[in-house]
Design a protein that fits this description.
The protein is built from 5 helices and 12 strands. The chain is an alpha/beta fold and 213 residues long. It comes from Streptomyces pactum.
Length: 213
């Protein structure tokens, strides 16, 4: 009997042999627009706000000094008694919250994450044209499970430093070696009757805070 590995090697060898005589691919012309948004930071932030809200995310604007009070208010409004804290999250962000904090420096178990009411994170970028926040597991963002299991995700976006107009402008700023999570609104799906159900694959509620210096 031929082993699977030798069969695979034989198939790959035939593919390589066929490609060896293939012509060089023609150069791809990349003259498309990299953004459809005016080059105006205020307009880009307004578009991000509009598209996030269109995806049913809660969107809030805050000064840096007012951020702890707003996060505390959001957690209280959702009756969040426990909140997961990723390593590197600024401690001041939760200074005005009465919720019990669960630091994920030693990774919490899936059961512990499921028993938490909320998670608060930063982000790597936010994309205005698609209403998307991008996390790359950097400081203050944590591993992917933190933002998929708790029912409430509060995500803080620094304006304008973390806001870009479009995907072509976002990708060069992301490290392709890092795991990225792209979030456009709360997790949702619908069945054949088009009945929308939220919280199936991730948080039922997404609150995005745009922090303006």
């Amino acid at each position: 009997m031929t082993s699977p590995s030798s069969s695979r090697d034989r198939v790959l060898g035939r593919v390589r042999a066929a490609l060896a005589e293939a012509p060089e691919p023609s150069e791809v012309t990349r003259d498309y627009l990299v953004s459809h948004t005016p080059d105006d930071p205020a307009a880009v932030v307004d578009l991000l706000h509009e598209n996030l809200a269109d995806y049913r995310a809660g969107v809030h604007r805050s000064t840096r000094d007012g951020l702890p009070a707003l996060i505390g208010k959001l957690l209280a409004a959702h009756d969040a008694a426990t909140v997961v804290v990723p390593p590197g999250l600024p401690g001041a962000w939760l200074a005005d919250s009465d919720a019990r904090q669960r630091l994920d420096d030693v990774p919490l178990t899936p059961h512990e994450l499921d028993s938490a009411d909320a998670v608060v994170t930063g982000c790597a970028l936010a994309v205005a044209e698609t209403g998307t926040v991008v996390l790359d597991a950097g400081p203050g963002q944590g591993r992917r499970a933190l933002t998929l299991i708790p029912d409430l995700h509060i995500c803080v976006v620094d304006v304008p430093g973390q806001v870009v107009a479009s995907l072509p402008r976002a990708l060069p700023r992301l490290d392709p070696a890092r795991p990225t999570t792209w979030i456009s609104g709360p997790s949702a799906t619908s069945d054949i009757e088009l009945d929308r159900v939220e919280g199936v694959h991730g948080p039922r509620t997404l609150e995005v805070v745009l922090v303006v210096d």
